[in-house]
Amino acid sequence: xxxxxxxxxxxxxxxxxxxxxxxxxxxxxxxxxxxxxxxxxxxxxxxxxxxxxxxxxxxxxxxxxxxxxxxxxxxxxxxxxxxxxxxxxxxxxxxxxxxxxxxxxxxxxxxxxxxxxxxxxxxxxxxxxxxxxxxxxxxxxxxxxxxxxxxxxxxxxxxxxxxxxxxxxxxxxxxxxxxxxxxxxxxxxxxxxxxxxxxxxxxxxxxxxxxxxxxxxxxxxxxxxxxxxxxxxxxxxxxxxxxxxxxxxxxxxxxxxxxxxxxxxxxxxxxxxxxxxxxxxxxxxxxxxxxxxxxxxxxxxxxxxxxxxxxxxxxxxxxxxxxxxxxxxxxxxxxxxxxxxxxxxxxxxxxxxxxxxxxxxxxxxxxxxxxxxxxxxxxxxxxxxxxxxxxxxxxxxxxxxxxxxxxxxxxxxxxxxxxxxxxxxxxxxxxxxxxxxxxxxxxxxxxxxxxxxxxxxxxxxxxxxxxxxxxxxxxxxxxxxxxxxxxxxxxxxxxxxxxxxxxxxxxxxxxxxxxxxxxxxxxxxxxxxxxxxxxxxxxxxxxxxxxxxxxxxxxxxxxxxxxxxxxxxxxxxxxxxxxxxxxxxxxxxxxxxxxxxxxxxxxxxxxxxxxxxxxxxxxxxxxxxxxxxxxxxxxxxxxxxxxxxxxx
Length: 648
Description:
The chain is 32% helix and 23% strand. Helix 16 (440-448) links the parallel strand 19 (430-434) and strand 20. Helix 20 runs parallel beside helix 21.
């Protein structure tokens, strides 16, 4: 501790002399009459600041009169080696307890203080580390220390570093202010953010740091409170707990460092620790590397904020369509190309809170085969969404996102055969999906089954997708082909928000989750369908919702016989479906994704004349009466679902 010092208080020279332990007291004051009388105390060492504040607020010195300002000056932890030292001031008024003053005070020591050299004065390099996820922290800390970096850290991170044998300066030693408000305020301080944000190429920035005794940070390594994990944990989280897990200081430091990336390296991902250390070893100035880290930092904060925003909206409103929407996407894999070889592509996973544990192809496990392509993902998604809707054991075969074969049967082997038989030409090179486990017997059938077209050609598939596989079943399928992609997926949850891009915007809607069990099949014809016919109509109706519009499906005995898809008019889709069904159309059920605009000499009459027994359609046309009359003429049952299933 110094025996004496001189303070320049806004142009007024104040002599300080050593008083009681830990204090300097005013020796002689020459103040303007307009200036309040004051006493100034300089704390040494700075970590006694909190105790000193409490002592002064509890029992001010006897010499203090009402409204007298008590100035407590405590040095920042930036070491003092010259006759000029910087202090951070706090003002107290004995009439109202603690009170903050932000006026800078400069103390000039009569003799050199015995502190270590300031980082800003000596050129020592500093790294600031504050982590919730402490994965590979010891590796990082030891690596930085071996490169000569002084480590500054907070709370639990500092303790973990010290346990790993890393020398650490705690943040409060720099701020001379304790962590407060249950940890809400730790790093929100000029001594931290000044050292991050100061531009090294701006003289007045560096002078400001020097005047205030603030050291610079060269590296900032921060990750955030685990808000995402907390609010998506099993059983949920109380609202107040969610609020407390919103990080404030972390994003502030990350954004500050990323903004000043020209001078500060910012790291938010433990995967980047080795690259960071290698970069620092070479000691080169690679601005592209710095910019990439800065981009990653801003993206990290943006994703974090989007999770907070989504969660708060869900606590505020039941509306799935908020006024503003951010969808955080994380790349899962680059793709060889897009829909066509000349298109570059990648696959991203939706990290929205609503997608956590919500199933779907995006989170499927690939057990075997060639890497997935853009079109593979689309087709696998279509097949999986379709097969997951059926209650009984079901097989779905998809080609170009359209189900070309669907069959439900207690014997899953028979369901597989029937699904392929519906359109064996289209099934070749398609995607096969099951809603039950693929065991040894089913795997053998998939591997050995011959095409119904010639009874010889072994069926080839791009993908097999199922909810699970037996050990033996997986082994057998792996032996079918080196390229066969084997996916294990979980069922999509209902109630998801469906997004689709258009030029310059996005369309958002509820997913089409309705199944036959959710609606009424209202008989509008004279003839009522038999129980088996109604069951076939329900099956066909569930199939048709997954076929591209205009869509027609013919089905019987829980098996698709034929379908027509994607035609500009419904009549052409009908004709395609009839052609595929052939003679089996007699007594079959027909489902249409939308109403028939015309009946006589059009689709309804052609369907009736072909021999179908029941037609299921939404209804709603101004010519519904014609459709009813036509069905009555041919003795065909007609049911209205009052639900349309357009799929574009």
